[in-house]
Amino acid sequence: MANISKRNRRREREVKNASKNRREIIAARLSRRDLIKAGLLTSAGYLIHKKGLSARAQWGGGGGDCDRRWWDGSGGAPVSPPTTPFVEPLFIPPIAQTVPALNPAPTVAPNTAAGEQRTRNHQALTTLPPVKFYEVHQRDQLLSVHPELPLQRLWTFNGTVPGQTYVARYGEPILVRNYNNLPADNGGFGLQSVSTHLHNGHTPSESDGFPCDFFASDPVGNTKWYDQHYPNVLAGFASSHPPLGDINESMSTLWYHDHRVDFTAQNVYKGLAGFYLLFNQFDTGDETTGFRLPSFPNFDIPMMFNDKNFDPDDGLLFFDLANRDGILGDKFLVNGKIQPFFEVKRRRYRFRWLNGGPSRFYRFYLTKSNLTNHPFWIIANDGNLLKNPVQTTTGVMISVAERIDVIVDFSSFAAGSIIHIENRLEQCDGAGPTNNILPAGQGAKVLEFRVVSDAVTDNSVNPATNPTFYQVPTRVAQRITRCFEFDRRNGQWVINDELFDCNDVRFRVKRNTAEIWRLEGGFDWSHPIHIHFEEHQVLKRNGQTPTLIERGRKDVIRLGENDDVEIYFRFRDFTGRYPMHCHNTIHEDHAMMLRFDIDDVGNNNENDCGHH
Amino acid sequence: MPDMNRRKMLATLAVAPLAVGVVGQTVGVENKFKVAESTREKLRKRFFPNFELTTHEGKTVHFYDDLIRDKIVVLNFMYVKCEGVCMPVTMNLKKVQKLLGDRVGRDIFMYSITLKPEEDTPQALKRYVRAHKIKPGWTFLTGKPDEINTLRRSLGFKDAKTRLDQDLTNHTGMVKYGNEARQWWAMFPGEANAPWIVECISWMDGTDAQPVIQATQKESKRAESGHRHSKTKKR
Q1: Domain around A180
Q2: Residue B213 and residue A119: Cβ atoms within 8 Å?
Q3: Which ipTM was obtained for this model?
């Protein structure tokens, strides 16, 4: 303990010196060129490692030694206070518990008289009646993110961050009664008005959490609520593959989060996110049946990664309201705790990795204490099991809202071994990563695995035997090809040169038809683009066949600088409004979004692909 | 699970005042951090410098005390001789002002701050206001160049990329809107559809704001097939 506080004091001093040096540089109005001349900055824009200038990098805070995000007193994020890494165990969010019944009982039409804030009828409440009921209260809660920081007043689903984990099953529709009890005082950021999105369920529009289906808070009573019906049904159930849907459209790792238009970044940063796991007869949660993936919950662990900033003066969560580009945190949280540890047995685990944002791109490696990489298997992308596991020795990239399920085998480690999840992707600002990969040990270690000696059995499938999960769903001819160019016009995000308006239906998809979309990125910026409702298949990335990892089904497309990606969808079964948006939540809140509707007519808007 | 017990215990503290940042911590933490100020005070210090500005009417005002505090505001940056995004944004905000009616100047305040204080004197701004027949309740402001630059950056009208940040022709068309007392701050694109902007501003009245989406299903002016504006490649 004495050592720790000594180390902390030293770090604190280093941080203070570093920011003093930065302030001096700024005060002296040195230009970038001056700094290069003085040997303090390389031409690539990195501060030279010099004690006092790059303290943040030394303790693995910032992910790389680029540090152009100096706080010069005019907005911007400060340097967070130091914290000792790996002092607390990984928090596992509790499993959501059902209630026997809801009072009043759910109704097809919104029960406005009783306080329901839904505005449209349920499409499938009677055809896919819920068999389980849940109540969730969105409310504030004092929580610890690290024992060396003060308690934080966060916004939660039922009191935890991440919120409770829903454990759902195909064929068992559920209904969640979602109460908004967020407090009158927002504590500096966040809007007490919510729309909870289930990312990326095959969910009817009225339950999807469209950004403009928000509703207000009642901090003291339960007079404001919204029923969300999650049918847990496979795409195609009422169209191409009746009556159960296409098994190859099975999803597994979903998450839910606030999606309130213009305030998503603030509300999610404050805590409003959680996991929703979907099992079926193959992905059973039991390693002795089906695909024999490691059993839930003991060996199947969801991990939500977030990077955040904390005020160095009072130690409280800091949200940079002056940032339009993307917020990069210098503290890395897994399931709501800064740099936790997790004890593992000498066997295989399934980890469901989710980049919970707000903006950073990760490339995660498993770094052994001798700074070599431990290989692992990628089994699912965006919650969709691949055809076969894909082994990686070069880490895996995860942009905001992407989910990567992995199998990690710890059986080769001796008890007492230490392995870190390390982000080695360098990123200097919100615009996107530099794509430089940092050397092992010089990235940001976000979680520490500690191998324990307990004897343990492992009945889970060995990915090296190349098990087959799902096939890529068969395609039918597309009705239309639409093209979307993502750009920025005087700081305003435009898609095909137009700005967002929740009331503007940019195009209409004809229900039960297939479409091809081509998404094209602009200069300078990287965007994780998310499209609600249907999983898509990546046909081509920059003219090439996508990698094995990207070849399955997805719902987030990484659009790097000048990328051109072609994707295929079938929009089946339900109608209504859905968005396509950037999931860098800062871009999203600055209107990098469009609305499209699914109906039974469709139209041909946004089909001008002539510029390609 | 000890963690759950701790959480249950903490639930009873849920009404602790926001100013206390050190409740229930391990020994040492309480000495390390200052007791938090009110968040409103923190926001003021961080984002809303109280610089002295001059209105287009020649009146001296303080940014936080006179323009922001306790108000619902709509705020952007522009300059008189701007040939780029300023004019379409100004014209669009005129529509917004018209739609908001007599609320502007009463409980919603619109501000445009010059990016070129050297040439945009109060008189120049006044001429601009007259030329564009801008109604009362929307104030144009100038001040000391250094302070305006700090204000611009503090308020989030800066670009992460220095190249873009220092290119005046590329200055942002985004507009900040907020409610200072409620600590709600966001931005909309200044060229967005005016009725949509009005809807965004209306959220600042209180969280009771209801989405009006189902009432107005409009298809905008877009033609039914393949319409696209001519390309502008500014970023």
Answers
A1: 112-280
A2: yes
A3: 0.88
String of DSSP letters for A238-266 = TTTSTTT--GGG---EEEEEE--TTTHHH
Domain B40-210 homologous superfamily, CATH: Glutaredoxin (3.40.30.10)
Q: How large is the C-alpha radius of gyration of chain A? A: 24
Question: Exposed e or buried b for every residue in A111-149, given b needs 16+ CB within 10 A?
Answer: beeebbbbbbebbbbeebebebbbbbbbbbbbbbbbebb
Are residues A448 and A488 located together in one domain of the fold? no
Q: Does A388 fall in a domain?
A: yes
Cβ contact A377:A389 at 8 Å: yes
Interface residue B174 vs chain A (CB under 8 A): yes
> Residue B165, SS3?
helix
Q: Say whether both A191 and A126 belong to one domain.
A: yes
Which residue in the block uniquely carries the two structure tokens 């030293």? A10
Residues of A in contact with B210 (CB under 8 A): 215-216
Shared domain check, A418 and A484: no
Q: Are residues A458 and A485 in the same domain?
A: no
Taking a C-beta distance cutoff of 8 angstroms, is the pair A199, A256 a contact?
yes
**Tokens (6 digits) for A120:** 């449209």
Residue of A nearest to B191 (CA): A499
Q: What is the mean pLDDT of chain B?
A: 81
Residues B170-184: tens digit of each pLDDT: 889 999 999 999 999
Structure tokens given for A516? 């091809």
Q: Both A263 and A392 in a single domain?
A: no
How far apart are the two ends of chain A, measured CA to CA in Å? 61
Q: Given pLDDT bands bounded at 50, 70 and 90, which one contains residue B160?
A: confident
Do A119 and B226 count as a contact with CB atoms less than 8 A apart? no
Rg (CA), chain B: 22
Determine what percent of chain B falls in helix, strand and coil, rounding each to the nearest 5: 40, 20, 45
- Say whether both A244 and A315 belong to one domain: no
Report the share of chain B in percent with pLDDT over 70. Answer: 74
Q: Do B171 and A490 touch (CB under 8 A)?
A: yes
Report how far residue B134's alpha carbon sits from residue B129's, in angstroms, rounded to the nearest whole number: 5
**Interface mutation target, options B25, B30, B33, B83, chain A, most CBs of A under 10 Å:** B33
Separation of alpha carbons A102 and A99, rounded Å = 7
Distance from the first to the final alpha carbon of chain B: 52
pLDDT at A316 over 50: yes
Q: Does B136 touch chain A (CB under 8 A)?
A: no
**Which amino acid is present at B95?**
K
Classify burial at A468, counting beta carbons within 10 Å of its beta carbon; exposed 0-12, middle 13-18, buried 19 or more. exposed
Q: Please check whether residue B133 touches A, CB under 8 A.
A: no
* Token pair in block for residue A523: 């200069």
**Which of B27, B68, B155, B213 has the most A C-beta neighbours within 10 Å, making it the best mutation to test the interface with A?**
B213
Are A322 and A420 found together in one domain? Answer: yes
Which class for A426: exposed (0-12), middle (13-18), buried (19 or more C-beta within 10 A)? buried
